[in-house]
Amino acid sequence: MKRIMVTGGAGFIGSNFIRYELDQYPDVRIVNFDKLTYAGNLENLKDIDETRYTFVQGDIADADAVRQALDGCDAVVNFAAETHVDRSIMAASDFIATNVTGVYNIVEAAHQLGLERVLHVSTDEVYGSIEEGSFKETDRPNPRNPYSASKASGELIGLSHFITFGTPVVITRGSNTYGPYQYPEKVLPLFVTNAIDDEPLPLYKGGEHNVRDWLYVEDHCSGIDCALRNGTPGEVYNVAGGNERENIVLTRKILSLLGKSEDLIKLVKDRPGHDRRYSIDPAKLGQLGWKSKMDWDEGIARTVGWYRDNEWWWRKIKSGEFLEYYNRQYGNR
């Protein structure tokens, strides 16, 4: 694979994946196809090697644009998605357009052009909540909010294309990912940046003991890369961090690292249908040689430090569209 198109490459995981590929493979060239919605930010990639990188602005919901950008590529990795559960509860139409129709456009174009591989990046949230144990890839998805339902639908589109046409689709399901360049609507960068400014940390009441498995973004990228290059078409691979923590534990850890008081914690009305616990088993991907490397304490400290040291990146984001969303989401809670 010499030329890889990365959709959503100006977003959080997508931009980190581009960095990872360019660092790991000196002969790889990247085409970054991104619509540049509110969470897309080309400053995430401002210091990369542009001699092996091309940016194309476009929407995966536009079939013609997808096919044109894919022409000449060997593979595509699809990060492009609407990803925030709270936004999907407010309005789900964009999630359907991007996470379902967009996936169809990608696999259809890949089939027509004869690509070597289509890697579709999905989420552990398609499984729903689990009280004990961990989900395996053979467990039946049970999405419980509009976001996860749209992601599960996109998976089915991809897998059906493999079964029907032989399109070489591989799917990864990642757990809660954290690290640099994450848009501050998500809990970790939101809480870090709020705490830096001594603003309240809006923690869902009733969800403070919910459990998430935390996966450092570079580990997620290496897992996706492993599945891309070594996975079997038509298969699904879990990518897990092995770092399950309650939301309140994460919140207290952030405050401790910043030397801030727990008085900043503000319990707010819980999210409708809030899943209690996510947990996935990555043993299948482990059989291909992958494992997560980042220790949770080190990863959280490194991430908090990045946001503390890079206010230039997030301060301009936390205005305009973000501020409107934030007030709409938390203003009456």
Rg for CA atoms = 19 Å
Largest sheet: 7 strands, parallel
In CATH terms, what is the fold-level topology of the largest domain?
Answer: Rossmann fold
Number of helices: 12
Q: Which structural category do the helix and sheet elements fall into?
A: alpha/beta
The CATH class of the largest domain is Alpha Beta
CATH H-level superfamily of the largest domain: NAD(P)-binding Rossmann-like Domain
Order of helices and strands: EHEEHEHHEHEEHEEHEEHEHHHH
Give the CATH architecture of the largest domain. 3-Layer(aba) Sandwich
Low-pLDDT stretches are none
Helix share bin:
40-55%
Note the overall shape: globular
Total DSSP E strands: 12
Strand content: 15-25%
Q: Calculate the terminal CA-CA distance, rounded to whole Å.
A: 49 Å
Number of domains: 2
Describe this structure in words.
There is one protein chain. The protein is an alpha/beta fold. The chain folds into 2 domains: 3-177 and 214-239, Rossmann fold (3-Layer(aba) Sandwich), CATH 3.40.50; 184-212 and 243-272 and 296-326, UDP-galactose 4-epimerase, domain 1 (Alpha-Beta Complex). 41% of the residues lie in helices and 17% in strands. α1 packs across α7 (217-230) and α2 (63-70) crosses α4 (93-113). The longest helix has 21 residues, at 93-113. The protein is globular and about 55 Å long. The mean pLDDT is 95.
